[in-house]
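Need a sequence for this fold. Nothing fancy.
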């Protein structure tokens, strides 16, 4: 993912609400969210180049998502793929705290990442580019893009504020969340960070929904995890012109494994 807002344990109906956009090169192939044939406990999209994922849920309603940390340095060719971190977490029997502690010694070998991992009880954040590697998060609304947690980039502030308003209103219709993910307005250039990629690309990437012929928003996702164990997980895919090219919807009643809906 490249833009995430997450509400944790503050909505009367939902234990967790995740709204997110994934930005990637249009030429890099990916499969839409679905159970994996070789890991049927996972419900996730899949990067078909490296084999990992950016966002996944398992049968126990644990989930994980990852964003890259934007930095000038190129990652080493031999660096392990960050997309395996979520897969490895959901394949383990560990909670977020234990998994991140076991991972700590290996994190210098990875390119920069931000990781959010949750189980039924806890939500943890970790980054190998943060002064504090890992910490548990309190109840509330959190935001993440390609810097550390809650860095107030304009597009992140827009999405997080929309989610905060939605939760405060105890809303149930996710339409405002989808509209916020589809916001294609770029920010005022004077309000943007300098992450070393040049002013033109800072401006291109400043919209919540990124539009560019080579690189842009490939999919948008909304996950609603009910306090009763229900699941609603929808992913909308987009082509290089920003037109919707697919939609995958998954639903589960409490205690069930999600099934595709139309």
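Here you go.
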């Amino acid at each position: 993912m490249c833009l995430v807002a997450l509400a944790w344990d503050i909505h009367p109906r939902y234990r967790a609400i995740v709204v997110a956009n994934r930005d990637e090169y249009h030429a890099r192939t990916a499969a839409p969210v679905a159970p994996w044939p070789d890991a049927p406990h996972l419900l996730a999209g899949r990067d078909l180049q490296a084999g990992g994922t950016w966002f996944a849920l398992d049968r126990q309603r644990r989930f994980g998502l990852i964003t890259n940390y934007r930095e000038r340095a190129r990652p080493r060719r031999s660096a392990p793929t960050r997309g395996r971190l979520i897969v490895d977490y959901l394949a383990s029997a560990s909670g977020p705290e234990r998994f991140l502690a076991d991972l700590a010694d290996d994190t210098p070998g990875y390119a920069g990442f931000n990781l959010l991992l949750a189980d039924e009880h806890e939500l943890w954040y970790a980054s190998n580019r943060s002064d504090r590697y890992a910490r548990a998060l309190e109840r509330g609304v959190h935001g993440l893009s390609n810097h550390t947690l809650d860095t107030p980039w304009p597009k992140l502030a827009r999405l997080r504020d929309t989610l905060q308003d939605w939760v405060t209103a105890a809303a149930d219709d996710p339409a405002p969340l989808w509209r916020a993910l589809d916001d294609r307005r770029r920010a005022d250039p004077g309000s943007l960070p300098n992450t070393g990629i040049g002013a033109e690309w800072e401006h291109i990437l400043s919209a919540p929904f990124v539009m560019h012929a080579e690189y842009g928003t490939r999919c948008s996702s909304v996950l609603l995890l009910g306090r009763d164990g229900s699941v609603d997980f929808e992913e909308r895919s987009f082509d290089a012109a920003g037109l919707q090219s697919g939609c995958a919807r998954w639903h589960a009643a409490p205690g069930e494994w999600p099934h595709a809906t139309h």
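For context: The CA atoms of residues 4 and 19 lie 6 Å apart.
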